[in-house]
Amino acid sequence: MPDQSPSSRRFRADSCFVTGGALLALLVVGGLFWAKYNMSTVKEWRGGNAWNLTYEAAAVSGDPRAAAVRYRHNPDSFRKDFRDERLGATRLPWHTEANINTGAVARMEVAPAGEGQVSCRILLDGVRVVAEGRSPAPGEPAVCEVTTSSTPEKWPTRPR
Questions:
Q1: What's the DSSP call for residue 140?
Q2: Around 97, how many Cα atoms within 13 Å sit in the side-chain half-sphere?
Q3: Residue pLDDT tens, the chain, 160 long
Q4: Which of 9, 93, 149, 154 is paired with 51 by a 20 to 30 Å CA distance?
Q5: DSSP secondary structure letter of residue 37
Q6: What's the whole-model pTM score?
């Protein structure tokens, strides 16, 4: 018959407790590493990955109006199709927010009224400028274009 002394039972209970705690800690740490390195894959599986961009247009010289403003957006972040919006005469400065899917082209074109000059900018989350443009000559449109990062939540830094 095995020894059933209180010290041997306590030793077995302590070793089970330590082993269980170590296994639990290993599972938690492994889960955190998995989540860190696979979060973008999980987000791609669930669909609906889009960047929130702000389109801005301003007058540089001349009439503070644009003859036309065109910009691209994704009406549904769960689908790859996009829509190009066209606005007629628009008072400047002007801005709007739009969602653009990961890996898609964000594009804006601003045609000045008359012989004026205009500028455009595309901002990530309303803060970081990711594209900008200016009329190359009076009466010429300003064009801004950028391809969004294909990795959710990881926009590459712009070279300076």
A1: P
A2: 7
A3: 555 666 776 777 777 878 888 888 888 888 887 777 776 666 555 555 788 899 999 999 988 999 999 999 887 766 677 888 999 999 999 999 998 888 889 999 999 998 999 999 999 988 899 999 999 999 999 999 999 887 766 776 654 4
A4: 93
A5: H
A6: 0.67
